[in-house]
Amino acid sequence: MIKEPNTLTAMEAVNSIASGSLSSVDLVQSCLDQISKTDNEINAWAYLDSENALKQAEQCDRIRKEGKATGPLHGIPVGLKDVIDTSDMPTEFGTPIFEGHQPHKDARIVERLRESGAVIMGKTVTTELAFMHPSKARNPHDFKRTPGGSSSGSAAAVAANHVPIAVGTQTNGSVIRPASFCGTYGFKPSSGTIPRSGVLQTSQTLDQVGCFGRSLADVGLLSDVLGSYDQNDLNSFSRPRPKMMDGALSEPPVTPDLAWLDLPFYDRLALETREGLDSITDILGTQVTKMTAADQLSNLVAVQARIHEYEICKHQSNVFDQNWDRLSVTIKEVISRGRQISEDEYNDALAVKTSAQDFFADFFTEFDAIIAPAAIGEAPFVKDQTTGDPIFCTLWTLAGLPSVTLPLLVGENDMPIGVQLIGEIEQDGRLLRTASWLQQFLASEASK
User: Fold this and answer.
1) CATH dotted code for 258-446
2) For 302-313, b where at least 16 C-beta lie within 10 A, e where not — what string?
3) 162, 205, 111: which is closest to 400 by C-alpha?
């Protein structure tokens, strides 16, 4: 059975366009048709420029036919979280405060996408200032449920076959959790891998860029395109980046060793999530080592909150002061807490963060990856007014570790639940290689 173009993975679409069996125009039009059919209920898009998307696709097709050089995402449609500056589209940060806001220049990652040949379809819905207040977006698997946040629309757009890949950001759990809820692959590379110039700053220390896709190769491909050194980003490193797509497509030289850390807050897990993860670890057998986590690891949750809340108050102080009456109660509570954090308390939290990074540097000398939940369970209902608990992403994001979620489990209501793998910092290719092995191993065991 021939797939509709909008249902292809990014890798499938790249190969089809390169071979001439599919045009970028046909791919983009198929995506636009799907958006037209379903987005009235999903609300994944904050801004969509269909005419401009088709013009970009037409140019891609001309370039290929003329035999000119093409980039790794040539003709591939991509969605951008609406916290990323674009010179030809508004960037509104999920709040009416910035309605109609038009940046003068592209974010660094948008420049990277344009150079790669990607077709930028538009801006995907985000929560208010990329924090916790729920957005208008809905989960494609059940419109009564949230897609998660804050990268709500990016996850929903990939899951709904609007685009094969999309870009999000994560300061706590804003890529991994929505990917889990929507049944996509979500990948947050190591902190400093992807530049953040031109991306809304809520936490200079913790903000990280991530990706959504339909396969591990997709998120590896997109991350490779986005990754580069950025002299204007204090977290950006000038060393070569891991080859992430190569990792996703390669076999490990030896069978990976995984770790399961039993943390105190794992009692929040839904029953079906716990049972599903127990089943996976049982199948893995001796390839996973279960251990009780050190008490100080669970204390890192409060450390992440202190840094995040202090820094969002610092970075967005003028926005908060000048628009207080236009902010949600959700973020007002955060601001009130953040403004009570002293500089000494903040600096202490930064020191603990550094010690956590040192701990994990030693930890990964023995293990290829940590296996963990991606979220508590199925996506919450919209009526609950939450984007879900990010607690199962907090530690890894604080330490800047690469994290990926795989759509491996299904809850009691047939909603997707992800399984998360976390790797050593700047060993992103190795993490994706381990994730690929895990998928193949579980599939092989299931077929016996």
Assistant:
1) 3.90.1300.10
2) ebbbbbbbbbbb
3) 205
What are the residues whose beta carbons fall under 8 Å from the beta carbon of 280, sequence distance 6 or more?
Answer: 371, 408, 419, 442
335 within 8 A of 311, measured Cβ to Cβ = no
Q: Cα separation of 125 and 115, whole Å?
A: 24
**H-state helical runs in 194-316:** 216-226, 244-249, 271-284, 295-298, 300-315
Contact of 48 with 125, CB cutoff 8 Å: no
Q: What is the DSSP letter of 5?
A: G
Distance CA 194, CA 197 (A): 10
Chain segment 13-71, per-residue pLDDT in tens: 999 999 999 999 999 999 999 999 999 999 999 999 999 999 999 999 999 999 999 99
Residue 90 has pLDDT above 70, yes or no: yes
Q: Which of 169, 236, 139 is nearest to 393 (CA)?
A: 169
| pLDDT, tens digit, 9 for 90 and up, residues 95-112 | 999 999 999 999 999 999
Q: Where are the domains of the chain?
A: 5-245, 258-446
Residues with catalytic function: 81, 150, 174
Residue with tokens 């990268």: 151
Whole-number Cα distances in Å, 337 to 14, 316, 389: 47, 14, 19
Q: What is the DSSP letter of 121?
A: E
pTM above 0.85, yes or no: yes
- Strand ranges, E, within 82-174: 119-124, 165-170
The first and second tokens of residue 141, run together, are 């698997």
Provide long-range contacts, Cβ within 8 A and 24+ apart, for 287-290: 287/255, 287/256, 287/257, 287/258, 288/257, 288/258, 288/259, 288/260, 288/371, 289/257, 289/258, 289/259, 289/260, 289/367, 290/259, 290/260, 290/262
Q: How crowded is the C-beta side of 55, counted as CA atoms within 13 Å?
A: 4
Sheet with strand 185-188: strands edge to edge: 45-48, 119-124, 77-81, 165-170, 208-213, 185-188, 403-410, 416-422, 369-373, 258-262, 288-292
* Total residue count of the chain as it appears in this document: 448
Do the domains 258-446 and 5-245 match in fold?
yes
The number of CA neighbours under 13 Å toward the Cβ of 392 is 32
Tell whether domain 5-245 is in CATH 3.40.50.1100.
Answer: no
